[in-house]
Amino acid sequence: MMRARGAIVLAAGLPLWIYLVRFIHEAKNSAFGYELGSAAFPLPAQFRAARFLAVISFLVGLSLLLADFITWIKKRPTDHPTA
Is residue 62 included in any domain, yes or no? Predict the structure, then answer.
């Protein structure tokens, strides 16, 4: 059976994505509207850090999932006879 460490990392990064989506939704519904991230109202530092961490955790989780899948495929017995 395939290792689940990539899926665990992806699941661990899910709360960060939920936080980011909620923050953007709340900011766009506030008085700032779509000026969030512009020169008039730059993104807060904690938002930029959370976004960076979410992207890094997504990429690490995806690469671990891919590496585990490749290892799992290599370990599977083949259907071809070795005679």
Answer: yes
Packing angle between helix 5-12 and helix 14-29, nearest 10 degrees? 20
DSSP the chain: ----HHHHHHHHTHHHHHHHHHHHHHHHHSSSGGGBTSSSBPPPHHHHHHHHHHHHHHHHHHHHHHHHHHHHHHHSPPSS---
Q: Does a structural domain hold residue 46?
A: yes
Q: Does 33 fall in a domain?
A: yes
pLDDT digits (tens, 9 = 90+) for 30-54: 877 777 777 777 878 888 888 888 8
Percent of the chain with pLDDT over 90: 1
Full domain range(s) for residue 18? 14-75
Count of domains observed in the chain: 1
